[in-house]
Amino acid sequence: MENKPSINLNKFISSTGICSRREAEKLIVSGRVTINGNLTQLGNRVVDGDVVKVDGRTLQAKPKTIYIAFNKPVGIVCTTDSKEKKNIVRYINHPERLFPIGRLDKPSEGLIFLTNDGDIVNKILRAGNNHEKDYVVTVDQPITDDFIKKMGAGIPILGTVTQKCAVTKLSTKTFQIVLTQGLNRQIRRMCEYLGYEVLKLKRTRIMNVQLDALKIGEWRDLSEKELKEINTMVASSSKTEEASTGIQKKKAPPKKKPSQKPNAFTKKSAAFRKNSPKSKTKSNSSSRKKRR
Fold this sequence. Notes:
This protein has helices spanning 9-15, 21-29, 88-92, 118-125, 145-153, 186-193, 224-234, 241-245, 267-275, 277-291, and strands at 6-8, 33-35, 38-39, 45-47, 52-54, 57-58, 67-72, 99-101, 109-115, 133-139, 156-157, 160-161, 166-169, 174-179, 198-206, 209-210, 219-221. It is α+β, with helices and mostly antiparallel strands.
């Protein structure tokens, strides 16, 4: 008889997300769990094909988390909207339901991640977490030193100034730029501001993952090493709005009470003076003079 891979019952119940392993043990002991219609006990194991129920309701195992790197062609749209004929999900046609992490403009090409793991998406996208992305860009006219300097220093677009970044000239009309921001059509808008038009834009790296030899229109699973490095990078990633914008909100300094001069008149000081022994003495003396 072939031995099938199995998992401890309490671990299986916990893996579906309904409760912890300890709570799962309580469910088992209280007779609320069945495997294939039979009551269970601690130590039972689950194999592929078994039907596990809690209080008569079938538990569904969570799908395996999937992370892929895709070399997006020009013309493919980074959306899951079924109304878009050229949406990225339809193009890849993966057996699992995936969604893109971030976006890459329709006229752009290159590396993009897709996954079914919603927990990791925001951590990767937050600009404040300094997750780098490399782009190789070709423009319509010769690149000057002034262009490189201004692109790296920050360009005013969309009501803000882009963060400082590394920009390197590769050839007469091609440069490389490393961004941590993800503003809408950021590189194209930056170039337009300086009077340049982008002819080709290709993303070649996201964090620790390189496009390398992955051909246009093809995808591959991320390796265990790549995933381990990504998880290490995002382990302390902030989920706050400040991180997504790269701007930290400053706390307002505590309000200082207005300083009072020694003889300044206030309601409090007036009341104090009125009730002071010295004030009462003067009041009594004044009343005596009036009587005389």
